[in-house]
Design brief:
By secondary structure, this protein is α+β, with helices and mostly antiparallel strands. The protein is 25% helix and 29% strand. The protein folds into two domains: 63 residues, lambda repressor-like DNA-binding domains (434 Repressor (Amino-terminal Domain)); 104 residues, Jelly Rolls. It comes from Planifilum fimeticola.
């Protein structure tokens, strides 16, 4: 049996993290504010259709909301069990996911490998997350918003992913960069 209190707590915590009011979510779902309050406080069960609307308004998967397992405080990923490198054929990078993030986490950590044979005519790209980078091996040129920055082992940068950017290898040497994508929930 699904625990109404657990579901309600997940909805409430998500809503508060997103700095949304009960009225905003209730309006988006076509329910009353008092009904949402009762759902959040575990005082009433909601129809699946209503839960689906709440999940859509909060941009969370319903499977997570209905999952009875508690969120993990620790996600430990052994090097041998980490997902293999995933390639981005459009850009030429290889990504290695360092941790499977919980649904409400605002960060995604990767190691990005920049091959030495990366084509020099790559186009910059954008995405919605902020980005933190730390050069682990080698050196890169970070192209950001029309300017070029040299970065070597130990250097770091934090920037908005909404601005055009790109990493390029230096001196035909492969580079590895710890990259953390950070969901910016305040824009």
């Amino acid at each position: 049996m699904i625990d109404l209190q657990t579901i309600g707590n997940k909805i409430k915590q998500t809503r508060l993290m997103q700095k949304k009011t009960q009225q905003q979510i209730a309006d988006a779902c076509g329910i009353s504010k008092s009904m949402l309050s009762k759902i959040e406080n575990g005082q009433t069960a909601a129809a699946v259709a209503t839960l689906s609307k709440i999940c859509k308004a909060l941009n969370i998967p319903m499977s997570w909301l209905l999952d009875e397992e508690k969120d993990q405080d620790l996600i430990l990923v052994n090097k041998r069990s980490r997902k293999a490198k995933m390639g981005d054929h459009n850009i030429g990078y290889y990504y290695e996911l360092l941790a499977n993030k919980p649904p409400l986490s605002v960060i995604e950590p990767f190691i990005v490998s920049i091959p030495k044979e990366l084509k020099k005519d790559q186009q910059t790209y954008t995405h919605t997350q902020d980005e933190f980078v730390y050069v682990l091996e080698g050196a890169i040129e970070l192209y950001y918003d029309g300017k070029k920055y040299y970065m070597e082992k130990g250097d770091s940068a934090y920037f908005r992913g909404t601005k055009p950017h790109l990493y390029m290898p230096v001196n035909n040497q492969e580079a590895k960069v710890l990259t953390i994508y950070i969901e910016n929930r305040f824009e």
